[in-house]
Amino acid sequence: QRKMLEDISHLSATGGWELDIPTMQLTWSKETYSIFDLPETFIPSVETATSFFTDESRPVITAAVEQAIEEGIPYDLELSLITGNGRLIWVRALCEVVYQNGKKQALIGAIQDITERKIIDDKILHFAMTDSLTGLANRTQFNQRFEQSIKLANRENKRLALMMIDLDKFKAVNDTFGHPIGDELLRAVAKVLIDNARETDVTARLGGDEFAILVVHPDKKESVGIYAQRIINELAKVFIIEGNEVNIGSSIGISVCPEDASEQEGLLKKADVALY
Fold first, then answer.
1. How far is CA 247 from CA 17, 174, 185, 192, in A?
2. Between 139-156 and 115-129, two packed helices, what is the crossing angle to 10 degrees?
3. pLDDT > 70 in the chain, percent
4. Are 123 and 26 in contact (CB under 8 A)?
5. How far is CA 118 from CA 14, 62, 124, in A?
6. Angle of helix 170-177 relative to helix 179-196, nearest 10 degrees?
7. Are 253 and 164 in contact (CB under 8 A)?
8. What does R_g of the chain's alpha carbons equal in angstroms?
């Protein structure tokens, strides 16, 4: 029966563990050693086990174990760790509390390698949040980031600027050269926007030839205008698309939080009015 449990554990990439609360002695199953890429001669403890978790996950698992021991609260978490071989993996960590005569006697738990599932989930999320043509954020991601950025700006009393960007003469490009050239042009425009953006900014394609940039914490309102003018100058240059000279321009409308509005709808309306 023990061998059957070990075989099942191995096939499901799930390890077991037990922590005796009175002695704080931690015991791992064979598969747990395998998940951590550690030899079975390694003697685990709460301190050594939690040390393998990443800087982001370590405080989470440490607090969860402490709550389980002190308050009897079970947990079910998804965490990242660096194995003994230096691999970055994701695991699902579960814990239940065992009582004896009304007292907390032990913690028993399982740990499962979910790295492949996380990779698939991340890819799905990436596709759901990214414009497939340009690789920029799509409208869904833009709206989420917009909401988060406004909350942060209002909480920390800092500015947030919105630039709405429309391409001039884009329809004429499609009509003259065809949609494949139009698509290549949109990719080229996206590159210009990314090349001129800061890492903290959010650059998005909202649809068609409509783009937007969230300028996070600009030092002053005037600097956003300088930023926008630089983009206008770059987009006014001739694009060479598959041997064709393509001329477009751009129009940009700007709104700034908190000067123009302090919520998303107001900033969008102000920037849209400025654009047109």
1. 66, 12, 10, 14
2. 90
3. 95
4. no
5. 16, 22, 10
6. 140
7. yes
8. 27
Residue with tokens 């043509």: 133
Q: What is the pLDDT of residue 50?
A: 96
Q: Report which secondary-structure segment, H or E, holds 10.
A: helix 2-11
Which is the catalytic residue, given 209, 219, 260, 272? 209
What is the average per-residue pLDDT within 174-194? 94
Q: How confident is the model at residue 1 (pLDDT cuts 50, 70, 90)?
A: very low
Euclidean distance between the first and the last CA atom of the chain, given in angstroms as a whole number? 74
66-73 long-range CB contacts below 8 Å, 24 or more apart? Answer: 68/95, 68/97, 68/107, 69/19, 69/21, 69/104, 69/107, 72/97, 72/99, 72/104, 73/97
Residue 114 has pLDDT above 70, yes or no: yes
Q: Are 107 and 65 in contact (CB under 8 A)?
A: yes
Q: Which amino acid is located at 88 in the chain?
A: L
Q: Is 219 a catalytic residue?
A: no
pLDDT > 50? residue 7: no
The total number of residues written for the chain in this structure: 276
Question: Please, which pLDDT band fits residue 2 given cuts at 50, 70 and 90?
Answer: very low
CA distance 191 to 235: 11
52 close to 83: Cβ distance less than 8 angstroms: yes
Query: Which of 84, 75, 86, 87 lies closest to 111 in space, CA to CA?
Result: 75
User: From CA 219, how far away is CA 191, in angstroms rounded?
Assistant: 24
Q: Amino acid identity, residue 211? A: F
246-273 pLDDT tens trace: 999 999 999 999 999 989 999 999 999 9
Q: What sign has the CA pseudo-torsion 211, 197, 158, 146? A: positive
